[in-house]
Please model this.
Amino acid sequence: MADPRWLDDREFRAWLGYRRMRLLLDARISRDLHRDSGLSDADYDVLSALTSRDDRRWRLQELADRMLWSKSRLSRHISRMEERGLVIREECATDGRGAVIVLSEGGWRAIRDAAPMHVESVRRHLIDLLTDEQLETLGDIADLVLEHLAADDD
Model:
């Protein structure tokens, strides 16, 4: 086995900075979202995914895949969202075992009301802190890492 390629000071600073930034940024934006709208990150992710489609519907398995959740975990979360009137679960017409998650009127109102405050939080805690060049670099870094991770899955 080859010797580990330890991180040098510059690499270590970047890695630790990224990890700490990600944790604190996610926590702050999540706290703002819940305070401003009563929605959790998972609620917001489900609702925003549903609004991304013209018919405001997703198969449960496709939505679980998009969120990187197990089908059973998402199903339990969807049940809690159903109780709050945010989504409706329907049987899949083409697969009797499948379910389709549909955005309800209450869910549409919730995401519409939450989105402006959520995007303001994202701006305040990240976007508006960066120069145009830094923002472009951050996007390039994200694209590069995501492409690498997608290729690793193959």
